[in-house]
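can u do me a favor
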């Protein structure tokens, strides 16, 4: 009998488990017997978000893979490296993007819940700790990049994952609107 796979989907900054990609992936996996999806509402604090993800991994009796978009991609990369898991990242934040995120310090409103919160300087400093210099197992990572990402520099992303599996495509945007079409490729990589 084949092993069950738990996929943990990690949303981006200012988003939630209600994100479009999370919903698309959940819908795609409906009826799958060998795969389950968990999409937590991540804490605004990077260190608390990492603790949440680690708790899910430690409590899982199944094999785990992580999928992360944008900031969730940074978390997925960090977690996969730490626990020797496979990760799929979609237009992810990488180490060289983090310095530009200092501008995020301040007040925000969540896209889905309208919850107001503060992203503090402490949160930003904790974020810096998650930017890994080198990946222990580069082939544990599959990165999907749109070259017209209007939020993050795709060149930085491509360079960071240069020893990993990468699908880099012209056009597109940070939201990665054709995510649905990539799900079979993502699942093939995970298995």
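np, heres the sequence
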């Amino acid at each position: 009998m084949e092993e069950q796979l738990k996929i943990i989907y990690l949303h981006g900054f200012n988003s939630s488990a209600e994100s479009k990609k999370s919903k698309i992936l959940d819908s795609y996996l409906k009826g799958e017997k060998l795969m389950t999806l968990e999409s937590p509402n991540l804490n605004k604090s990077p260190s608390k978000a990492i603790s949440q993800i680690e708790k899910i991994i430690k409590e899982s009796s199944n094999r785990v893979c992580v999928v992360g978009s944008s900031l969730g991609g940074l978390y997925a990369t960090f977690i996969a490296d730490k626990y020797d898991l496979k990760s799929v990242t979609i237009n992810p934040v990488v180490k060289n993007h983090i310095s530009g995120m200092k501008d995020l310090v301040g007040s925000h409103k969540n896209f889905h819940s309208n919850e107001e919160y503060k992203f503090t300087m402490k949160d930003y400093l904790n974020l810096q700790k998650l930017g890994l210099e080198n990946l222990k197992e580069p082939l544990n990572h599959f990165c999907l990049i749109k070259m017209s990402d209007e939020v993050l520099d795709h060149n930085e992303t491509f360079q960071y994952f240069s020893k990993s599996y990468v699908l880099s495509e012209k056009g597109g945007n940070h939201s990665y609107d054709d995510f649905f079409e990539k799900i079979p490729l993502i699942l093939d990589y995970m298995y």
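The CA atoms of residues 81 and 137 lie 7 Å apart. hope that helps!!
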